[in-house]
């Protein structure tokens, strides 16, 4: 007995479908064979009646009212394979070659009624008295005058039915054999599906219990192979994500501990008193900076959480990418100055390179990219920024000559929590947030890097057509830009340098 499950369902469905198909085929087959045999008998008798009429001409000229003419009719119409009966138009038997019925019996079967209407009648049924199944074929013969008779032939169907029974039993035997073969094949087919599923289920159960080192083994094909590969890939990604999460927890713990330690230490120091105003200002300044650092870390994690839940709201408007990049350079100037890193901007000062977007979020994008460039650049190096328009897109690029990223890490660097160098701190969320923000602005971000040679980050955003800018940009352009406030060179022909 097959236990409950997919195996039983598959076998049962195949078995039922094939069984119904076999029953239908065998029924149609037996019906066709029976019809063929019965039609053959009917056609044979009908042909005999038609040919026998040619011999009735001499009889028609004689007196047909006596029994002698009936005997002649029996002789001329006799058929060795069937009993012959001569009936009047009332259905009474006048003569018979071998009586099934009692003498002078009146018959009212359907073949007689059809013969009275001028057709060749046929009736299949049980012979009264004997219970034998017979076929009756009747036809009216008009010999002229009042000499009109019904010629009726009766033939037994027992021999034909016995042959049909043998054929039916043979068909049943063939059907049983086919069902047995189908049963064996369906069980094998079901097992070929169920075994891999059971294996995958067992491995999945182990993974659910935390054993992420197990893998589905076996060279499965088609959908099962895809399922096994997907499960193995999922386990690999979970292990990788867990590792990234552990690294993130370790990193963020360190990142949070450092400013908290500074805040706690200076708070206790200041609380103890006895320090001059200069030391107090230094302590308060450190507390303020470390607090801002903590706020930045928390905001970065909150931004990423909003992006993951599709809750990030953008306040969009006309934004000048040139001004965004200039402001970014001014914001990171002090940090770059500490490492003696030079920032250089190459752009057309007469164009704003406007896009439709959220200025604060786009500034966050460029701040993160330039800050990373400074973080991973050598002292006394250069960082090149450029803004231009190509094919209806604003292209902004940030190129550094820093340590670069290996090909292995480059494909993972935009994954959440991933950090190339844990020594430099951070949450590993910056580039993941940057990519999400760029995509929210219907843009793309491309990173190219070579280990030891530097990294280039290129952002492409849909440009606003000049006619959509209106006079608003002209008014803004007349006001002093960030460059004029900080001594950035204003000659459009020269690259900007901070």
From TrEMBL:
Matching entries from InterPro entries are given as:
HAMP_dom, HATPase_C_sf, HATPase_dom, His_kinase_dom, HisK_dim/P_dom, HisK_dim/P_sf, Sig_transdc_His_kin-like_C
Please name the GO terms that the record assigns under molecular function: ATP binding; histidine phosphotransfer kinase activity; phosphorelay sensor kinase activity
As its record notes, the protein acts as a catalyst of: ATP + protein L-histidine = ADP + protein N-phospho-L-histidine
Membrane-spanning segments: 12-33, 164-185
Q: Which residues form the HAMP domain?
A: 191-243
**EC numbers for this chain:** 2.7.13.3
Polar residues bias (residue ranges): 486-498
The record describes its membrane topology as: Multi-pass membrane protein
Question: This protein's superkingdom?
Answer: Bacteria
Q: Where in the cell is it found?
A: Cell membrane; Membrane raft
* Spans annotated as Disordered: 465-498
Per its UniProt record, what SMART domains does this chain match? HAMP (SM00304), HATPase_c (SM00387), HisKA (SM00388)
Q: Which GO terms describe its cellular component?
A: membrane raft; plasma membrane
Pfam families per record: HAMP (PF00672), HATPase_c (PF02518), HisKA (PF00512)
List, for all copies, the residue spans of the domain called Histidine kinase. Answer: 251-465
List UniProt keywords, sorted A-Z.
Answer: ATP-binding, Cell membrane, Kinase, Membrane, Nucleotide-binding, Phosphoprotein, Transferase, Transmembrane, Transmembrane helix, Two-component regulatory system
List the PANTHER family hit by this protein, alphabetically: OSMOSENSING HISTIDINE PROTEIN KINASE SLN1, TWO-COMPONENT HISTIDINE PROTEIN KINASE
Q: What is this protein called?
A: histidine kinase
Organism, as annotated: Paenibacillus xylanilyticus
- Organism lineage: Bacteria, Bacillati, Bacillota, Bacilli, Bacillales
């Amino acid at each position: 007995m097959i236990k409950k499950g997919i195996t039983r369902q598959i076998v049962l469905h195949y078995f039922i479908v094939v069984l119904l198909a076999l029953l239908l085929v065998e029924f149609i087959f037996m019906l066709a064979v029976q019809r063929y045999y019965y039609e053959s008998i009917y056609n044979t008798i009908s042909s005999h009646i038609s040919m026998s009429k040619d011999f009735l001409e001499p009889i028609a000229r004689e007196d047909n009212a006596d029994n002698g003419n009936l005997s002649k009719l029996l002789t001329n119409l006799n058929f060795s394979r069937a009993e012959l009966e001569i009936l009047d138009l009332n259905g009474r038997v006048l003569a018979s070659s071998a009586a099934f019925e009692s003498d002078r019996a009146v018959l009212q079967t359907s073949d007689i009624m059809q013969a009275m209407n001028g057709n060749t009648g046929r009736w299949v049924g049980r012979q009264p008295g004997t219970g034998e199944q017979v076929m009756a074929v009747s036809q009216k013969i008009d010999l002229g005058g009042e000499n009109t008779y019904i010629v009726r032939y009766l033939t037994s169907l027992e021999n034909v039915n016995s042959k049909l029974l043998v054929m039916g039993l043979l068909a049943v035997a063939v059907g049983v054999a086919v069902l047995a073969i189908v049963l064996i094949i369906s069980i094998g087919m079901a097992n070929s599906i169920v075994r891999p599923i059971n294996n995958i289920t067992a491995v999945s159960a182990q993974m659910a219990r935390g054993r992420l080192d197990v893998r589905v083994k076996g060279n499965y094909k088609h959908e099962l192979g895809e399922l096994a590969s997907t499960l193995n890939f999922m386990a690999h990604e979970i292990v990788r994500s867990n590792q990234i999460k552990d690294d993130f927890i370790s990193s963020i713990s360190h990142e949070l501990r450092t400013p908290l330690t500074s805040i706690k230490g200076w708070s206790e120091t200041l609380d103890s008193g006895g320090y001059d105003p200069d030391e107090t200002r230094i302590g308060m300044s450190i507390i303020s900076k470390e607090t801002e650092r903590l706020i930045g870390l928390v905001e970065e994690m909150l931004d990423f959480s909003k992006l993951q839940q599709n809750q990030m709201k953008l306040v969009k408007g006309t934004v000048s990418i040139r001004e965004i990049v200039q402001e970014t350079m001014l914001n990171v100037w002090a940090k770059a100055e500490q490492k003696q890193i030079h920032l250089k901007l190459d752009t057309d000062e007469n164009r704003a390179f406007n896009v439709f977007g959220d200025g604060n979020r786009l500034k966050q994008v460029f701040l993160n990219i330039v800050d990373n460039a400074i973080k991973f650049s050598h002292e006394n190096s250069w960082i090149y920024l450029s803004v231009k328009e190509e094919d209806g897109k604003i292209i902004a690029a940030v190129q550094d000559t820093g340590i670069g990223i290996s090909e292995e890490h480059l494909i993972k660097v935009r994954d959440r929590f991933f950090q190339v160098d844990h020594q430099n701190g951070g949450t590993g969320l910056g580039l993941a947030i940057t990519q999400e923000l760029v995509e929210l602005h219907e843009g793309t971000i491309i990173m190219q890097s070579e280990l030891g040679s530097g990294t280039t980050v290129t952002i492409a955003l849909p440009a606003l057509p000049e006619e959509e800018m209106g006079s608003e940009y002209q008014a803004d352009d007349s006001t002093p830009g960030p460059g004029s406030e900080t001594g950035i060179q204003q000659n459009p022909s020269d690259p900007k340098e901070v």
